[in-house]
Amino acid sequence: HRARFTLDPDFTVGPVDPRLYGSFVEHLGRCVHTGIHEPGHPAADAEGLRTDVLELVRELGVTVIRYPGGNFVSGHRWEDSVGPVAERPRRLDVAWRSTESHRFGLSEFMAFLRKLGPRTEPMMALNLGTRGVMEAMELVEYANHPGGTALSDRRVAHGDKEPFGIRMWCLGNEMDGPWQTGYRTAEEYGRLAARTARALRQIDPGLELVACGSSGRDLPTFAAWEATVLAETYDVVDHVSLHAYYEETDGDRDSFLASAEHMDVFIREVLATCDHVAARLKSPKRLTLSFDEWNVWYQRRPDPHPVEDWQEAPRLLEDVYTVTDAVVVGSLLITLLRHADRIAVACLAQLVNVIAPIMTEPGGPAWRQTTFFPFAQASRYGRGTVLDVRVTSPTHRTEKYGEVPLLHATAVRGEDGTLTVFAVNRDRHAPLRLDVALRGLDLVRVVEHSALADADPEARNTLEAPDRVVPHRVTGTVLDEGVLHALLEPMSWNVIRLA
Ligand code: AHR
């Protein structure tokens, strides 16, 4: 098998917004409690943050973290999560049938971000399920106003003298989903989101606001939801959200490996809907997308840790990812990059323990899941400008998506002129030869070809064997007379760097 494409710096998709490499921390299961926060753990710092996890999050290269939900936020009162920890109430979290202690809240989250370093910014989700305009305004005032008002002074009294300066706000979470506490029709939500957005802009016109799009392309309301919501909110929001989770069903691995085809169509359809609304409104403004939840998630598998209701930090959604899942995550990243011109933010859901690239054991170690690697490599090397990649590739038939190319690829040119090719071979059985013609790029050598692939498609990293799956170096990849030649192993994620 042989696939090819041509790269030319004159043909670009657009610059990569670093916020494409975001993640998500929800009060769900053990993402917060015993995930990022575990007072008493041997690696915990004075604030109870696990320094072993902080180190892995830094290595992962996360640029944005969405917080505090997810479904959790639609039953959440933000006031519960601030002030002296001992006085914070314990409450039912009806979304996940758990008990929330609020030992970790807004101030602790901001401290966590500060410890990650200046390059990770918050993205707060507002509760528009069971609350409304006033509570959203109050939270923004508490978080962002410098001082001299009741709410901002309350923040100062709570120990946070400096305003948090949170720029990005999600106007609710998955408001189209019948599972969402207080879910709404598109008309109801559109009006509420527009009113909330206008009120928040009265506080600060510079906020970046995200309207809830669909929680999935397969929902019956998809596209009509976006059209209705955006008709109300178009002028006052910056982004519309998309959520997508993929899993293998009925042993159909070839379709699973082609999940990025679904993501690609989903993105195109949401953009078409946005632009349709722009046309109707005769608006020159163009919205961008916030793909603020995406990942592989085995929703149809029975939970390996059945738990009783109303536990604190139960083991929920602790998917253990295989090398196959990592290849799919890599190809989803490729699709996000291929749409860099219209994607402003994307968040891998979630960060720790809950469908996450990082796992921890209470009182024990933290380790990288297989999916950690494609994300970390994309975040590290996928910065700059995405080049327009038009692939010529052999194809194969899949049950869900019909005929799909075996090669899925993109390329990013760094500001220093270096180039990184990200490529997935979807063929489970045969290697794929790749030839990339490089025009006008002034590249002289292959710096590294790294691959994630394994003879065992089920190979995974666990507490007992945390380093079973790691990327390996591939030899034999060469640059010869302006053409890059590489061999992509069967079912593999590849990062080829050139300088
Ligand atoms: O990420 C897990 C859940 O998936 C989130 O809480 C929700 O927004 C989505 O349905």
From TrEMBL:
UniProt entry keywords in alphabetical sequence: Carbohydrate metabolism, Glycosidase, Hydrolase
SMART domains the record matches: Alpha-L-AF_C
Xref: SUPFAM superfamilies: (Trans)glycosidases, Glycosyl hydrolase domain
EC number: 3.2.1.55
Keyword Glycosyltransferase: no
Transmembrane annotation, as ranges: none
PANTHER family linked to this entry: ALPHA-L-ARABINOFURANOSIDASE C, ALPHA-L-ARABINOFURANOSIDASE C-RELATED
Subunit structure: Homohexamer; trimer of dimers.
Sequence similarity: Belongs to the glycosyl hydrolase 51 family.
The protein's name in its UniProt record: non-reducing end alpha-L-arabinofuranosidase
Organism listed in the record: Streptomyces gulbargensis
